[in-house]
Amino acid sequence: MTAKTLISFERLAPRLRERLRQNRAFWLAAMLAVLAVLLAASLAIGTRSVSLSDVAGALAGHADTIGEAVVTMRIPRTLLALLAGAALGLSGALMQGMTRNPLADPGIFGVNMGASLAVVIGVAWFGIASSQAYIWSAILGAGVTAVFVYAVGSLGRGGATPLKLTLAGAATSIAFASLVIAVVLPRGDIAGGIRSWQIGGVGGATFERILPVLPFLAAGLVLALVSARKLNAMALGDEIAAGLGENVSLGRALSALSSVLLCGAITAVCGPIGFVGLVVPHVCRLLVGVDHRWLLPFSALVGAALLLASDILGRIVARPGEVDVGIVTALVGGPFFIWIVRRQKVREL
């Protein structure tokens, strides 16, 4: 590279950085606007449509029949969809960053199903009933599953390659799904509720169910933001990251702990919702690039928007009934998963 080329590049670099900052600011404003529209739509659309004036009245405290329904049913549901989407999108970005695997996702890696199995065992064998017991069981199950999948994917030559981690996660998820059925089948008294919860949804949300989850989600968010810079370094490779002074093991541990907290807490409340963590980070990379300091917050915003949109769609297509959000995200995520596999090509994973 000639001196003239270097000088030209140095002059061009600030313009590129400024253009990138402007694009990020644009996408941030656009995403916030989309999220605001979806929040209003989630409050207004349901088995019975509610006008925005009635929604505003309910938020202002006017106690009529429609307003009471909005406050007691749709606001908690909307809040839960917002939190669940943000947590799953963020955890997917963390998993893809720390494993450098474009197919990483809490569902594909079996983490959601591990959390589900732990909750089902707790309900069927130990009679747990409180929200705190559900949350701790789910987090424990998610953490044990994450360690197990990583250990299995690390066996053999080459260590934990993306392909081996994906295969280990998929096999674990299938095995745990079968174990859930085996645990539930003899227990007819809990089978109906467990089956409904296993689909994954935000219906029936209440503030009493949401409040115990908030500290765990807050802790997961803080750990995610702390690990953003380390993930940027790890994207260059473990050896280069260590050479830059980053503690690779600590960065991977923080990211894993954050992902486990986010996945486990949300699975305890909503059940296993798949593919949000797979789809969202890829969309966000197209919008804001690969810098995790931007990618992680954007993944939370886009994840919240995706789950809200999926929940609204599920209410519309089956009126007066509804389709659970877990089914809608599977219909969206399945084809996207196939596209990612074809685009990345298995031999490159």
Describe the structure.
- The protein is mostly helical and 349 residues long.
- It has a single domain, classed as ABC transporter involved in vitamin B12 uptake, BtuC, CATH 1.10.3470.10.
- It contains 14 helices and no strands.
- α12 packs across α13.
- The radius of gyration is 21 Å and the shape is globular.
- The two termini are 32 Å apart.
Give the topology.
Elements: H1 3-44, H2 52-60, H3 65-99, H4 111-126, H5 131-153, H6 162-184, H7 188-199, H8 207-210, H9 214-234, H10 238-243, H11 248-270, H12 276-288, H13 292-317, H14 325-344
Helix pairs in contact: 1-3, 1-13, 2-3, 3-9, 3-11, 3-12, 3-13, 4-5, 4-6, 4-11, 5-6, 5-11, 9-11, 9-13, 12-13, 13-14
InterPro entries: ABC_BtuC-like, ABC_transptr_permease_BtuC
Keywords: Cell membrane, Membrane, Transmembrane, Transmembrane helix, Transport
Membrane topology: Multi-pass membrane protein
